[in-house]
Amino acid sequence: MTDYLKIADPEWFKQRVTGIVFCVFAAFALLAVRLFHLQVIGGEEYRRLSASNCIRLESIDAPRGLIFDRTGDMMVDNRPAFDVSIIPRDARPVEETVGNLAGLLHFTAEELMEKIREKRRLASYKPVLLRKDIGRNTLAAIEVQRYDLPGVVINVTPRRHYLYDQSAAHVLGYLGEISNEELSCGKFPDCRPGDFVGKFGVEKTFESVLRGERGGRQVEVNAKGQVVRVLQTVDARPGHNVYLTIDRGLQQKAEEMLRGAAGAVVAMDPGTGEILAMVSSPSFDQNAFVSGMTYDQWEALISNPNRPMENKAVQGEYPPASTYKIVTAIAGLEEGVIDEKTTFYCPGFHRFGNRVYRCWKKGGHGSVEVVRALAESCDVFFYQVGQRVGVDRLAQYATALGLGSPTGVALDHEADGLVPTSAWKRKKTGIPWQGGENLSIAIGQGYNLVTPIQMLGLFAAIGNGGIQYRPQILKRIENTQGEVVRSESPTEAARIEFSGKTMELVRRGLWEAVNTVGGTAFRSRWSAVDISGKTGTAQVVGRKEEETADDQEEVAHYHKDHAWFVAYAPSEEPKIAVAVIVEHGEHGSSTAAPIARAMIETYLGGKSGGQKLAKRE
Fold first, then answer.
1. For residue 530, what is the DSSP state?
2. Tens digit of pLDDT for each residue in 509-527?
3. Which letter does DSSP use for residue 454 in this model?
4. What phi and psi values does residue 453 have, to the nearest 5 degrees?
5. What confidence tens digit (pLDDT) does each residue in 452-509 have?
6. What's the pLDDT score for residue 552?
7. What's the average model confidence in pLDDT over 281-291?
8. How many Cα atoms occupy the beta-carbon half-sphere of 251 within 13 Å?
9. Which residue has the higher pLDDT, 609 or 183?
10. How many angstroms separate the CA atoms of 530 and 519, rounded?
11. pLDDT tens, residue by residue, 349-361
């Protein structure tokens, strides 16, 4: 009854209505104030933001460190590249934008849509890379049609550039897109899908040094994904610069001399172990791996019988042929099987059991001792030494001289080579070692396998008096301010602990091989400087007993012998050692030795920064 009377009371009803009106008025007043602030005071700013602006983080790739030769001559640089990406959320309708873009990128719309579908697991505001490294004409065409291409962005990134086409490709290596396995292995913590990392050579070995630190920027973009302004930037930090021990002038000379042939050339400073040149032929174009290679191009590389993707200087395994005779000579001298005056008669062949083993010289060498046997490469002399020493004692000396194991050069996939023993053969084949196999092993045939860099290290140690240095390709590392952050010093790997007399006889034999009439490399002597070296002709396939080297003309190219020459110069205090192998080059004296001489002349003649020597009268 009381509530009814209140409602019927006009004064009470009036108070309630007034309160409600006041509340409604207050609400509208607050709304009007807020609208005034939004439209008048902050109108311009909010109109700009109202166009669906948002803030995003963009990655900035770090410029990769540069690579120089020992003299500071740049070999690897970075160049700007323009990559086209699309942000699906900003490109709506995506199909229409892709249709407008496809013709400019020389793709079909379906091909571009497939790229986008492959990345559908990414957030819609993440860019999807459509094409890398577009040309300037394509860039200009996209910029002209920018407003018809919402969500399309162009990023400028540093792209690797190898300055000298195919030069030092096996040393420098190349970059490739990081794989899923590499991303998950934990060795590339700052890398993302699509990044390029070192895959081979120096680029891989010094990946952590060359790769810089990624930067980033905070940007404000509009509804079309276009950057309105940059809010904040953290600059990328470039990688360190790498200086190699390679002498580019000498490197180019070796490449020039080996052009058109398959094989390897590697040169070293015998006093430090620094690699002055390393060539594997045929080579390949490293820039093709960065810019993109077609399936057909890749197939052509990997199916090439001359193996352009193999670094033959450190991965190629070959019979050492007559270059191995210094191992046999050292073993014979050290074991007391022969001495300086021991002679064997060479009629041009040697009978062992029911087989005849021939010397390369059809008429024979007559009576020879160890120095002349090395100089003229008498097979019969070393047959008899090998027969007396035996495979297992030969293996001990070969191993002590650095054969049969990697040298430790800072390049991937270095081969071991092979120093056979009687136990190794029994384990490998189940067949006991045969006496006649000692003869083949003694002249560097049979199961023997070496790499060019192993033979180079052996000859360098003979030349420098017995120190085997670890082959070194890094000179120093500098930061972008030119401060040295790491410097390499010669590393002694082993010492040849043989008698001085043995070393003297071997060195004399190597000197006579080049500097005396009858020496196998006499035609490659140099009047300015004494060169010491050893030729070799390695059989690829066995010949019948009645065949001689003259019959090689009738043999298919890939069955022809490999040509070896390993040398150092000057003979007394060597500044350079060179190992050359020309696959199927047949004769070391005529094919490989001239290449080594040209390199020695180039380096010691001062044409590539080497020490210039006065010509002797």
1. -
2. 999 999 999 999 999 999 9
3. H
4. -70, -30
5. 999 999 999 999 999 999 999 999 999 999 999 999 999 999 999 899 999 999 999 9
6. 46
7. 91
8. 28
9. 183
10. 13
11. 999 989 999 999 9
What is the C-alpha separation between 229 and 336, in angstroms, rounded?
A: 84
Using CA atoms, how far apart are residues 288 and 169, in angstroms rounded to an integer?
12
What the block records as the tokens of 549 is: 């080297």
The segment with the largest mean pLDDT, out of 92-106, 453-467, 586-600, is 453-467
Tokens of 378: 């008498």
Which CATH architecture best describes the domain 56-244?
Alpha-Beta Complex (3.90)
User: Can you read off the two tokens belonging to residue 151?
Assistant: 């969500």
Two tokens, residue 177: 């897109």
Query: Tokens 């590499």 correspond to what residue?
Result: 182
Residue 547 has pLDDT above 50, yes or no: no
| Beta strand spans in 249-336 (E) | 263-268, 275-281
Lowest-confidence region among 43-52, 467-476, 532-541: 43-52
Residues 92-104, mean pLDDT to the nearest whole number: 87
> How far is 100 from 104, CA to CA, in rounded Å?
8
Does 3.40.710.10 match the CATH number of domain 248-604?
yes
Residue from 280, 322, 589, 608 carrying the catalytic annotation: 322
Give per-residue burial for 253-268: e unless 16+ CB within 10 Å, then b.
bbbebbeebbbbbbbb
Write down the residue that tokens 């609208």 correspond to.
Answer: 35
Q: Give, as one character, the DSSP assignment of residue 367.
A: E
Query: What pLDDT is stored for residue 12 in this prediction?
Result: 62
- Indicate the residue type of 184: S
Both tokens of 192, joined, read: 């993302």
**Preceding peptide of 93 cis, ω within 30°:** yes
Catalytic, 590? Answer: no
Residues 269, 603: contact at Cβ < 8 Å?
no
| Separation of alpha carbons 556 and 333, rounded Å | 39
The beta strand positions in 166-305, using DSSP E, are 174-177, 196-200, 215-221, 227-234, 241-244, 263-268, 275-281
CA-CA distance, 498 to 240, in Å (whole number)?
Answer: 43
DSSP state of 554: G
305 membership: H or E segment, kind and range:
none
Q: What is the pLDDT of residue 376?
A: 97
pLDDT at 24 over 70: yes
489's CB contacts (< 8 A; 6+ apart) are none
Q: State residue 355 phi and psi, 5-degree precision.
A: -125, 150
Provide the pLDDT for residue 13.
Answer: 65
Joined tokens for residue 194: 């699509």
Q: What is the signed CA dihedral for 377, 378, 384, 390, rounded to 10 degrees?
A: 20
Question: Would you say the C-alpha torsion 551, 555, 559, 560 has a positive or negative sign?
Answer: positive
Q: Are 324 and 444 in contact (CB under 8 A)?
A: yes
